[in-house]
Amino acid sequence: MPYTVLARRYRCKTFDEVVGQDAIAQTLKSAIAHDRVAHAYLFCGTRGVGKTTVARILARALNCEKGPTPEPCGTCDICQAIHRGDDVDVLEIDGASNTGVDDVRTLRENAHYRPARARFKIYYIDEVHMLSRSAFNALLKILEEPPEHVKFIFSTTEPQRLPATILSRCQRFDFRAVPTETIADHLTWICEQERVAPQAEAVRAIAREGRGSVRDALTLLDQAIAVGDGAVTLEAVRQTVGAAGGEQVLQILAACAEGDAGSALGTFADLLASGADLGSLLEQLIRQVRDLLVVKTCAEEAELLDAFGPDRDRLAEVAESMAVPALVACLGYLTEARSRARYAVDARPVAELAIVRMASLAEMEPLPEVVAHLESLGRSLAGAGTGAGTGAGAGGGPSASAKAGSGGKAAKAAPSRQGGEKKKSKKDEAPHVAHAEEPSGNVPSARPAAGERGPAPDVDEAVRKALDIFDGRICQR
Ligand SMILES: Nc1ncnc2c1ncn2[C@@H]1O[C@H](COP(=O)(O)OP(=O)(O)OP(=O)(O)O)[C@@H](O)[C@H]1O
Ligand SMILES: [Mg+2]
Ligand SMILES: [Zn+2]
User: Fold this and answer.
1) Does the beta carbon of 49 sit less than 6 angstroms from any atom of ligand 1?
2) Paired strand residues for 357
3) pLDDT digit string, tens, across residues 219-252
4) What is the 3-state secondary structure (H, E, C) of the chain?
5) Is the omega angle on the peptide bond into residue 68 within 30 degrees of 0, that is, cis?
6) Is any atom of ligand 1 closer than 6 Å to the C-beta of 18?
C-alpha cells in the first residue's frame, strides 16, 4: 500500500479530536445539537490549523446518515466519503483557481438542485479571498437567500481581503495558531500510534518549528522519522530543518547591517550554490530577523527563539548593530519578497532585491536624526532672518554632491553640520569614534546671540541635508 503522509492519515474525524480549537469545536457542536446551524460560515486562520478538517467534520455532522448530530458515526458511506473529500454533496472548491464570475454563476445554478443523497449540499470554498470582485457580487445574491438545502463554508488565510458585504453575511470563526505545548502533546500521541519512540526534546523542537501549524509540525515529524530511520532524535530534526546554513543566513543579515550588500549577496549566492532552496532561505531570513527582534525587545526570550537558529549570544551580537525600526523594515522587505517570489518566473532577483534593500537601510538616518535635522533647519532659518534664507530655495534639490556626502553611517554617527565642515566619506568616519566625540551631535551650530549678526548659518547646507535625508527615506519606502 502506498504510504500516506501523517498529516493526511491523522486528519481528525470528530470535533473532540481537533486540538487547540476547543471554543470553535464546542460552538459548532452546540449549534448542531440545537439545530441552529448558520447557512454560511467563514473559517479564518493561517495554514494547517484545522480549517478544512473542521469543515469536513461539520459536513459529516450535518449529513451523516445518523444525523444531524454533533457526533457523526464515521462509518456510514457519507461520513467516509466526506472524510476522503470526495462526497457528491460536499463540494470542495479552490477559490484560488475558480476566481471568476462564471465559476460562481455555475455554482449558483447548481446550488438550486437538491443534494444527490444527503440532507445538505455543502459548498466549501477554500482561499475565498482570491475571488474576483464580480465573483463576490455574484456570490452575494445566493448568500442572501440560499436554498434551504444549501450550506456554505468559506475559508481564508487573509480575511482582511474579503468585502464587508460577505463578512457580514457569515458567522465567522478565527482559528488560532495552535500553542507549542498542544502540538507537542499531539505529536507524542501520534508517535505512540506509529510505535516510534521519540526524544522528548526532539518532539518539542518539531512543535516549535511548526509555529502554530499542526500540519507543518506533522510534515516535519514525517521527515524526521524518515531521516532518523524510525527514531525521532534531535539530530534527525536538525537535519530535517536544514539548520546547517543558520550561521550563513545570519551572516547575510550581519552584512546588511553593515551596509555591505556585496558581501550579503555573495553569501546568499554561496548558499544557493550549495543547494539551498530559495524559498526556505527567505523563510530562514524571516525567522532570523524575527529572532533578532525578539532578542532586542524581549527580556525572557529563550522560549520564543528558533529552536535551531544561531544561539542567543550570536544573535545579540548581530542585533547590536541593528535598530528596531530597521529590523521591522527588513521583515517587511522579506515577507514581501516571499509572497512575490511565489509567483515570479525567476524568484532569485526578487530575493536579491530584498537583500539590497535591507543593506541600504544602513544608509538611512534614524528618525530622531531626521527630526533633529529639521529642528536645526528651523532654528537656522529663524536665526538667519530673510537674508540667509535666500539660498534655501535654489539649493532645494538634493544635489549630487549633497548626496555623496550624506547618509550612511557617517551621517548617522556624526550629524554635525557646523558651517563649512567638510563632509566625510563613510570610510573616514568610524561611527563609534564619532559617537564618542560628539554625544550630543544633534545640536546644530550655535545660534548667534540676540542682536549679534555672527557668522551666517549655513542654511543651504541644512536644507540640502534635510531634503537629502528625506530623499533617502522616501526611496526606502
Ligand atoms: N487543530 C488541529 N488538530 C489536529 N490536527 C490538525 C489540526 N489542524 C491541522 N491538523 C492536521 O493538519 C492537517 C491539515 O489541516 P487542515 O487541512 O485542516 O488545515 P487548514 O487550516 O485547512 O490549512 P490550509 O489553510 O493550508 O488549507 C490535518 O489533516 C491534520 O492532520
Ligand atoms: Mg485547508
Ligand atoms: Zn455517518
Assistant:
1) yes
2) none
3) 989 988 888 888 898 888 877 776 556 778 889 9
4) CCCCCHHHHCCCCCHHHCCCCHHHHHHHHHHHHCCCCCCEEEEECCCCCCHHHHHHHHHHHHHCCCCCCCCCCCCCHHHHHHHHCCCCCEEEEECCCCCCHHHHHHHHHHHCCCCCCCCCEEEEEECHHHCCHHHHHHHHHHHHCCCCCEEEEEEECCHHHCCHHHHCCCEEEECCCCCHHHHHHHHHHHHHHHCCCECHHHHHHHHHHHCCCHHHHHHHHHHHHHHCCCCECHHHHHHHHCHHHHHHHHHHHHHHHCCCHHHHHHHHHHHHHCCCCHHHHHHHHHHHHHHHHHHHHCCCCHHHCCCCCCCHHHHHHHHHCCCHHHHHHHHHHHHHHHHHHHHCCCCHHHHHHHHHHHHHHHHCCCHHHHHHHHHHHHHHHHHHHHHHHHHHHHCCCCCHHHHHHCCHHHHHHCCCCCCCCCCCCCCCCCHHHHHHHCCCCCCCCCCCCCCCCCCCCCHHHHHHHHHHHHHHHHHHC
5) yes
6) yes
| Ligand 1 atom 19 nearest Cα | 48
Q: How far apart are CA 316 and CA 312, in angstroms?
A: 6
Residue 394 has a pLDDT of 39
| Window from 45-59, 115-129, 197-211, 387-401 with minimum mean pLDDT | 387-401
Rounded (5°) CA angle 72-78-81: 110
Q: Quote the pTM value.
A: 0.65
Give the residue, 305 or 197, on which the prediction is more confident: 197
Nearest ligand by distance to the CA of 48: 1
Ligand 1 within 6 A of 56 CB? no
Mutation pick for ligand 1 pocket among 183, 214, 219 (CB with most ligand atoms within 8 Å): 214
Closest-CA residue, ligand 1 atom 29, reads 11
The bridge status of strand 121-126 relative to strand 171-174 is: unpaired
The tens digit of pLDDT for each residue in 276-318 reads 778 888 988 998 899 898 888 876 666 666 655 667 778 888 8
Q: How many CB atoms lie within 10 A of CB 178?
A: 26
| Ligand 3: centre distance to CA 85 (Å) | 14
Ligand located closest to 46 CA? 1
